[in-house]
Write a structure and sequence with these properties.
The protein has 2 helices and 31 strands. By secondary structure, the protein is mainly beta.
Length: 403
């Protein structure tokens, strides 16, 4: 597997951090907060004062219209380092939910999961595994799934073994002005319809920002705009669990589009990635297509528009033996993989006289940026630069939330 890499390092890469000292943490507050969550009514605001609080079990909320508010993401800290039961730190199955100014640390599983709600606001929330990158960390930091109208802003996500900020199978989403660092995937939009990702910083992850479509999920995704982000130095070794989709992401990936349609990547600062600044691929390059895939799944990335990005150094030391050999063969010992790396898989049924129709093309209209087709469908036998990529697509609409 060339484009996404079969030679990933899947071992824990631990940072040597010792984690948070909980010797002075308040463990009695757990009972109080659990009772507040159970007794909550629509319109309630649950205030959590500044302090470090230790929990040994998951928290859950199933009442609509509740706000959880701390004193700040570095002031109100919920630590689950001593967790012995439950799959998440906080699980929310409710609508009209707001959580803000709080930190959730060292959960056994996902830190904050919001499932099947509408009108969700996650603001100034930090999720972190304080021991640093480790395969044994929880999979997801901030994790809304199957939601509608979701805002994540001014958040921080650190150390997730899958994705720091993940939005999956959702509709109408904004992720803005947040920071993702030392996760496998910094920010991931997966099987989601209508997302704007802007004003964020993604650095020191394995892959900075991912826009994925995966098979065997209830909803395919499309229409994502990734713009005005800083995506740099995402070169942390992949510490994801083997067999998960993100475990195939090479270290040194800036922005990765996988099997998704109608994606705009524009006006970002993307630089200093050892494999490539931008990767465009199909599910066939992830290794995940070896599992049974539903018949109507569309594996091909189509209608992609890359424009106006500042593209810095990248592609000088790919995290893949085959890509390293290709780099030397095509570009010399000191050469670099081009800014855009494409695995070459496309839907043959759409081709007209061997060419992809304009409305489905990958458009790289970005100064002197070039795209390399590594020829995945033919076993990477004949990689070549792609000529005439300077096309354009109709702009996607801005995401507007009803609050």
């Amino acid at each position: 597997m060339l484009a996404m890499g079969a030679a990933m390092s899947l071992a824990a890469c631990g940072s040597g951090n010792e984690g948070r000292d909980l010797s002075g943490a308040d463990s009695d507050f757990q009972t109080t907060l659990i009772e507040q969550l159970i007794d909550a009514r629509p319109g309630d605001v649950i205030e959590i004062p500044a302090g470090v609080y230790s929990f040994d079990r998951s928290l859950s909320l199933a009442v609509d219209g509740v706000t959880i508010r701390g004193a700040g993401m570095d002031e109100t800290i919920l630590s689950f380092a001593n967790q012995t039961s439950g799959a998440e730190g906080l699980l929310v199955t409710a609508s009209d939910f707001t959580i803000e100014d709080i930190a959730i640390e060292d959960t056994r599983g996902d830190a904050l999961k919001v499932n099947e709600g509408e009108n969700i606001i996650i603001r100034r929330v930090r999720t972190e595994w304080t021991n640093g990158p480790d395969t044994d960390n929880g999979a997801y930091g901030i994790y809304p799934v199957q939601t509608t109208n979701t805002l994540i802003e001014d958040a921080v996500a650190i150390g997730a073994s899958d994705a720091g900020i993940y939005v999956g199978q959702s509709r109408n989403v904004i992720v803005r002005n947040s920071r993702a660092e030392y996760n496998v995937a910094g920010i991931e939009i997966e099987n989601t319809i209508g997302a704007d990702v802007y004003g964020n910083v993604a650095t020191n992850n394995t892959g900075g920002i991912l826009v994925f479509n995966m098979p065997n999920l209830p909803q395919p995704g499309h229409s994502t705009r990734v713009y005005n982000n800083q995506v740099f130095d995402n070169n942390t070794g992949n510490f994801g669990h083997p067999g998960t989709p993100v475990a195939s992401v090479p270290a040194g990936s800036g922005i990765v589009i996988n099997s998704n349609d109608r994606v705009e990547i524009f006006d970002n600062d993307i630089r200093d990635h050892r494999t490539a600044n931008i990767i465009i691929s199909s599910v066939y390059s992830t290794g995940y297509s070896d599992v049974s895939v539903q018949e109507d799944f569309d594996p091909y990335p189509e209608t992609i528009w890359i424009s106006g990005n500042e593209l810095g150094e990248g592609g000088g030391n790919p995290d893949n033996v085959e890509l390293q050999a290709l780099r030397v063969l095509m570009f010399g010992l000191t050469g670099n993989i081009p800014d855009v790396l494409w695995d070459g898989f496309q839907n043959a049924d759409l081709l007209v006289e061997g060419d992809m129709p304009e409305q489905y093309r990958i458009c790289v209209d970005n100064g002197d940026a070039q795209m390399l087709n590594v020829d995945g469908p033919n076993g990477y036998a004949d990689p070549a630069m792609v000529e005439d990529t300077a096309c354009q697509h109709e702009r996607l609409p801005e995401i507007v939330l009803p609050f």
